[in-house]
Automatic annotation (TrEMBL):
Chain intervals with Low complexity compositional bias: 99-114
Entry superkingdom: Bacteria
Pfam families for this protein: DUF2516 (PF10724)
Membrane-spanning segments: 12-30, 45-63
InterPro entries: DUF2516
Region (Disordered) location: 89-114
Name recorded for this polypeptide: DUF2516 family protein
Keywords attached to this entry: Membrane, Transmembrane, Transmembrane helix
Species per Swiss-Prot/TrEMBL record: Streptomyces luomodiensis
Amino acid sequence: MLVEGFGKLMYWVSWGLLLFSLFAFVDSAIRREDAYRAADKQTKAFWLIILGLAAAVNFFMGILDFLPIIGLIATIVYVVDVRPALRQVSGGGRRWPRGRGSSSDGPYGPFNGR
């Protein structure tokens, strides 16, 4: 019973990693090529290859192998480092307030210092 539970957990973790790497791959595919150069990151083709390989490795191999861990590290690097830099360069910051408000606005309105 414990082994079955561990197997189910690893199954869902594998699916989560696959979806995470696919998200990063699709996100890197929709970004403009010049944004990568402007952000001083590797090229778009480089990230498409790395993230595509990470998604393929996550699809074909189990989570307990060595290569999916390397793919996870590459995906985390893209999401944590490259993606925010690309969003900053291309002007894709927070979309929610749609240009309203200022930098001193908090989640419940303007911050007036009191």
